[in-house]
Amino acid sequence: MDNPLRNWDYAGISSLCRELNMPAGAEGAMMDALKGVDAAKLLKEKDALRDYETGEAATRRVQQALSPLDPLKRGYIELGLSLQAALDARAGYREAGIPDEIFLATMGCFSRFVREHKESFGRYGFDRFFWTFRQLSRGIYRIGELEFDLHCGHENALGIHIPSDARLASCRESYRRALDFMKRFHPDFCFDRFHCHSWLLSPELKKLLDPTSHILAFQSDFTLEEVDLDSEGYKLWLFKRGDLALQDAPENTSLQRRAKAHLLSGGKIGEAAGYIPLERILS
Question: Which end of the chain is more exposed for a tag (fewer CB within 10 A), N or C?
Answer without folding.
Answer: N
